[in-house]
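Each lists sequence, tokenised fold; shown next:
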Amino acid sequence: MDDNSQQEMDFENSFDKPVIIETNSTTDACVIVLHGLGADGLDLADIVAQMNLPEDIAWRFVFPNAPVQAVTVNGGMSMRSWYDIYSLDIAQRIDVQGIADSVLYVKYLIEQQIAQGIVEQRIVLAGFSQGGLVALKSGLYLDYKIAGIVALSTYFPEVCLDAEPLDKAPVFMTHGYQDTVIPYEVAEASRVRLQNAGVDVEWHAYPMAHNVCLQEIHDMGAWLLARLNLQ
């Protein structure tokens, strides 16, 4: 068994199958959406209908499930998590290895879509909260020319910007003014950090807490249409 086959088997054993929604029988683009801490692939699936996308689009939405693992900040309780959270001060002491492991899984998901006929320029990575961090790290540092990255209510600490991004894919980044899980100023500092690295960030803020709102989902749909219609 070669290394790729072994890695694929490891992923199949560690990760539950993603939730998949297809808007048309002939798919020509894919949006991979990573959920937040303690949620699962179903958590964000409703956004597909809420984006009010045209009926003639042919997109596949893939909602992966993070592995179940102990999370330090929650007293070591096991839950779905893309990486460990060590404390409530999320910008300090980052689980770099856990993030790297999840990025490898995202690479595997991208390769699956390419194998099914979706070109990398027609793939978008998206994520909420810690899923957004993994989407950013994957989209900026994996060697693919993807259409863009959606980063919802998330952050990007300096340690994650460890080198020049391989691909400065455009980013749609949103946050809530009343977010107490990832404070607004932490997210805003992340936006500045990305822009200083040369990343094109479209920034939106909403009067909400650590969640998504309907206006945000509509704005996300409009951005996706603009990005994927350019390809």
